[in-house]
Amino acid sequence: MIKVVAFFKRKPGMSVEDFQNYWRTTHADIVKKLPGLRRYVQSHTLVSGYRKGEPVYDGTAELWYDTTDALRALVDTKELQATQADEHNFLDRSTMGQIFTEEHIIKDGAIPPNAVKNIEFVTHKPGMPIEAFQKHWREIHGPLGASIPVVRRYVQSHTRLSAYKSGIAPVYDGVAITWFDDTQAMRISATTLEYERTRADESNFIAPGKLPLIITKEHVIVA
Length: 223
What we know:
Shape: globular
Number of strands: 8
Oligomer: single chain
Strand order of the largest sheet: 1-3-2-8-5-7-6-4
Strand content: 25-35%
Distance between the termini: 14 Å
Low-confidence stretches: none
CATH class: Alpha Beta
Helix content: 25-40%
Structural class: alpha+beta
CATH architecture: 2-Layer Sandwich
CATH topology: Alpha-Beta Plaits
Number of domains: 1
Number of helices: 6
């Protein structure tokens, strides 16, 4: 299974509320018609997240397909053309990026009904081979993150190795996704010893600097 993760900002001048409503209704109805689409999830940045300024992205879209052949089959279809045409109605396409990933479930917990979903955009440590980065993230860092008591579910989406064959680095090497009961639970997580250990390990495989992230509400469009 291949998961496409897309991230973007809204059209200039469009309110957050109008953007989220259009994306969740009008655009979702168009995307649902894409041939071969197995699952489709929108994650909308929490409105409360705008109180301190503009977030790095207004949300992410996750789309699952069976194979790369299923993705190639989309090219030149009327459904894909309709999807791309509609993006101009609510997205700033100059901010849009996407990565093709393989999903690794680190903590297979249930998602609470009103959960918040934390999405962190990950870049590997300079000079570290991508295979070593992925192995460390999955096998060493993953269990550390999963040990944080208030984390309900934890998924890593690793950019597929085939993306590196062209010699052009993808925009991100993956996304780390964790679910919590609410934002209060997120704040509690940052006070735990397990959280401290998880953050301390980041310098072993992640590029220096603060990880870009958004805190979101998930909307499952196609289950």
